[in-house]
Amino acid sequence: MRHLAILVVVAVALRAWQLTHTEVASRDSISYVRIAWQLEHGPWRQVMSAAPQHPAYPLAVLAMSQLVRHFIPDDLPRAWQISAQLVSALASVLLLVPMFYLGREMFDDRIAFWACLLFQCLPASGKVMSDGLSDTLFLLFACTGLWLSALALRRRSVWLFILTGLAGGLAYWTRPEGALLIAASGLVLLGMQGRRSWRQEWRSVLLQGSALSLTALAVVAPYMLLIGGLTVKNTPNLLLNQQRPDADWERRLLPQPVPKAEPHTQVPQLSSVLLAAWFGPGDRTFDKLASNITDLRELHNYRMPSRYGWALKAFLLEAGKGFFYVVWLPALLGLWWRRERFRLVPGVWVSLLVCSVLCILLYLMAEKMGYLSDRHLLLLILCGTYWAVAGILVIGDKLALGAARLWPVLAGGRGAEGWTWALALLLLLTIAPLPRTLARLHAERAGFRSVGHWLAKHIKPGDFIEDPYCWAYYYAGRVFLEGRHDLPASKPSRFYVVLEESKNRHVRLVSLQKAVEDILCSNGAKIVHAEEVRRGRDKATLQVWEVPGPFRWLPTPPLPGQRN
DSSP of 171-205, one letter per residue? Predict the structure, then answer.
């Protein structure tokens, strides 16, 4: 309990600092907030089936917002941003319990303590734990499932298998890879029959396997039946070659329908602007798809051809970054030096299976989608920290032995103790990442919040805003106006486009700027607001373009279950 108390104090301090040093919500957080808002105002069945994310985290954000909005009633964007962050922060503190006891089950108290501390301090995991993302809540359920699975496999308890199925089901309700935990636990249960010391009667195996699978099925089946498949997320569906119907939720990511114009009125094609951001004006693919693109799989297939070598490189680079560039080495050494744990602890095989399959899936995602982030590897990093600490303890013993041989005078003193060397290394690895972990979240995007506030003050609520970056749209409060049909609009009607002009030579950003100049300017568009912001050492300019009407369109998408 003393170890856990120390960890809780450290985690609360880290999360409090990060919560008070966040500039804007992450882009994905805006998507989760939109889902939570729609869950409050629309039919749950339609909302869940139309949403591009699993519902556990949005439901948690909705519950937290009931409390936060009581204290911040007049600033919905800020209230919902804090609600999403508080859910993640609370989950990060609760995560310490299953993670610590999983470490005890796999190794001992000392390794469990330092693994928890290291995971809280690493930038890849530490920054996400205070952001408005579903990852931390998923880690809470997944790590709880790993711990319960390890206990169940050792104690052969039916009730523990039931709890493991429940935890795996909740993890699946948060992210689709939660199903891996259930499958891995069942496979290890069967595989234990091949080792004499772990073998038990087949009747017991059948009972335990049934408890695991039936509980998990009872938890995940309602959601699967509701969505009519395995998941609503686009990436898994694209990997499985399953087409996901378009939803209003993805309107910030996909090209929008061109607004219906009054007769004899030329309308700038906003879908062309967004397609230009992906392909660039004049590209043959752009010309081919500009007229009609509704299938996200088709879009991704065109923008990212198959690249096996690149995917492997991307996976290794993101893994290295996630392990803070050096932690992966003691993790691999720990796997080898402490390999007896695979012979002694059956639960270790569950985490190994989950991580192995997840590595394959992440590689396929990188190869097919052309995208991979270190936060996709968080479960791998969590499991790897145990082996990293175990490896560092062995490294400490070897350093102490080497020091005693080089300097015999140290023999018998503290310099000869392996724990002294290991403690120094562990402190270095936990303290060194803190400047990056505690840096202001999304500091380079603060200007979009200012632009959003300007939009909220200077344009009508019913005017259309096209913001490829999402932040200005969110901080203008437009997420919370979606589905409204009674909003006042400018007469003649107008719509606004938010862009960023910077030295960033990213082809998509440059193409987007050119598309605006070529398409919008020819339709009378002009810059009505601009702000200079910092992008590291460089400067950038955020622009608000106004496109005059008259137009006739539904300015905001309807709620799921509503008709246009």
Answer: HHHH-GGGHHHHHHHHHHHHHGGGSGGG---HHHH
